[in-house]
Amino acid sequence: MHFTILVVGDDPKKQMEPFQEAGSGSIDQKYLEFEDVEDEMKKEWDDNKPEIPDWFAGNRITLSAKDYKTLKTEGLVQIIGLSDSFMLLKEGERRAGHYRTTNGKLSQDLYFDILTCIKREEEREDGGRNFFYDVTFRKIPKPKNSRPQERYPSFESFVKNYHGHEERDTKTNRFGYWNNPNGNWDWYVIGGRWMGYFTMKAGKYGTIGRSGSGGNAADYDADRALKGDIDWKRMETIRKESAEKDWEAYHNHVKNIKASKRTKEEKRNELQCLASQYDCGKDKEKYISERTNFATFAILKDGEWKERELNEDREIWDKTWQKILDSVPNNKLLTLIDYHT
What we know:
It is a single chain. By secondary structure, the protein is α+β, with helices and mostly antiparallel strands. Helices cover 30% and strands 25% of the residues. Strands 1, 11, 12, 13, 14, 15 and 16 form a 7-stranded mixed β-sheet that branches. β14 and β15 (304-307) form a beta hairpin. The model has no long low-confidence stretch (mean pLDDT 91).
């Protein structure tokens, strides 16, 4: 996932260094600690647990109730226009699927292999694109379970093939891995998906970073600038105007889709894609407030990394973030970074 962090002060590269995740490129050994997992895995082996399926189904696919019933009773179902951009389905794969009942609960899993799979895309009225799969699923038995000592000839084989540890660590002669307990990123770039984050005061300038992998254009003026040169009030105004336009555009699209002559399934698919694009599934005031706020997900100041907890109330984090920013002098450099974890 990608997040934003505001780095306070000079040399953001040096400041980010202690928070690099292990295994994500060259990293100074002084940041790493060895995580020993040998005793834990040996207990699993000695207890002959857990039960291990002979294949793994991966991400579950949500089917319609009709398609689920057809697959369950007839053993084969063809689906035209299965909508999910993140499933990455391929012919020959084995997967699992369920449907959501009227009370919101998930049904029991069905297991199937993918006989045919064609991915297609369609252009929306707003210029964006929706992705669909035309697929044929064939029901197969659920994976069989077996215990570790039935599946593998030795403890070392169990560790290698089930847990993925090829060999013991050369320094400790134990199974485990080296980890940075403070690791928060495996990749980052100044700007990135949020390139042009800051709006500058008249006659003041900052520098632009690099675009994200999609080659996005800069939103506003700069990604690195002195705090006092940034027009924070104008940033808020511009974001509010943009949020109001997007809100109106989203609800106009919804109205047009509902009034169209498309099938119920086509309308459902388009509305799902539209909701993921605009994220307007909340009241207007809350949506505009969240879009107007420019607090980053994390902030790094004086060697201390603070970030919003995923379940933390947004308003609480915004106040924490603003308090830290208020403590920064106007002559300090601020850098907006897009980081991945």
